[in-house]
Task: inverse folding
């Protein structure tokens, strides 16, 4: 099921936007105690890792792309290279 939320309601996404670069989490277990909606939703779907990429058009932020994995530690250097190509 899709859902939406305001960027202002997500401190973690605001931090990614502030840094202007993607975030890699190869073990979502670090968020097992987090009550944030997104963390609970991806955990309930069985995802074990996540890669979040901010998207820009003409240097203007337009949204995020999320790549999730059912396996832990999938986002190595080679994988990130290809995901960056898709994201850009």
Result:
């Amino acid at each position: 099921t899709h859902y939406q939320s305001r960027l202002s309601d997500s401190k973690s996404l605001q931090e990614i936007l502030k840094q202007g670069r993607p975030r890699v989490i190869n073990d979502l277990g670090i968020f097992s105690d987090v009550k944030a909606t997104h963390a609970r939703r991806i955990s309930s779907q069985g995802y074990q890792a996540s890669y979040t990429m901010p998207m820009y058009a003409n240097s203007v932020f337009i949204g995020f792309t999320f790549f999730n994995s059912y396996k832990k530690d999938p986002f190595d250097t080679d994988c990130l290279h290809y995901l960056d190509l898709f994201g850009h």
Q: What stands out?
A: Helices lie at 11-19, 37-44, 77-87.
